[in-house]
Specification:
The chain is α/β, with parallel strands linked by helices. It contains five helices and seven strands; from the N terminus they run βαβαβαβββαβα. The strands form two sheets. Strands 2-1-3-6-7 form a five-stranded parallel sheet, sandwiched between helices. A hairpin with a 2-residue loop joins β4 and β5. The N and C termini lie close together (8 Å).
């Protein structure tokens, strides 16, 4: 199993990075997991999507922006599981993680197909990774805020022709939840 972790923590959020590092070490110690690649989004150069559709028209499957997102795109599409990891701010993952998530659009096809009676993007690739979310809620985040965030990742999974394998608080996630 190949895992890509997109760490959206922007700063020290009550030990988020340390707890995530401990969990990542447990993943790398597991013999069923071949590779774990972690990207700390805040330390990378990732530009905002400009909505030019160049990844669909000019250079199909490749973003026209030249930054660190190229390596993330290759890693994500070649993984079995992509984990979006972030503290929640006002019920949602951080803005840097959202920016990286928006830039995953070259991995899907611009043409539309019906999925359960809804319009969604067609596959560009034969296989897509499962999606997992590890979050750390803020004291102000209520259950409905957290469920709203969960729904957003479920919608992303539909366009990825995949599903959300887990949506768990960082303090509760176990290696067994991933396998």
């Amino acid at each position: 199993m190949r895992i890509v972790i997109l760490n959206g923590s922007m700063e020290k959020a009550e030990g988020f990075n340390e707890k995530l590092a401990l969990f990542t070490n447990k993943l790398t110690d597991n013999k069923e997991i071949k590779e774990v690649m972690t990207y700390s989004i805040k330390d990378m150069t990732i530009n905002q999507c400009i909505g030019c559709f160049g990844c669909w028209v000019k250079k199909p499957g490749k973003c026209v922006l030249k930054d660190d997102m190229d390596q993330i795109l290759k890693s994500v599409i070649n993984s079995d599981l992509v984990i979006f990891a972030s503290p929640l701010l006002m019920g949602m993952t951080t803005s840097v993680l959202k920016k990286a998530t928006d830039r995953l659009i070259p991995l899907i096809h611009p043409y539309i197909t019906l999925v359960d009676g809804e319009c969604h993007h067609r596959k560009r690739y034969e296989q897509y990774p499962y999606i997992g979310v590890i979050y750390q809620a803020d004291a102000e985040d209520e259950a409905e805020d957290i469920e709203g965030c969960h729904e957003i990742y479920k919608r992303l999974a539909i366009n990825f022709h995949s599903h959300v394998k887990f949506f768990s608080p960082l303090d509760e996630i176990k290696v067994g939840d991933i396998l």
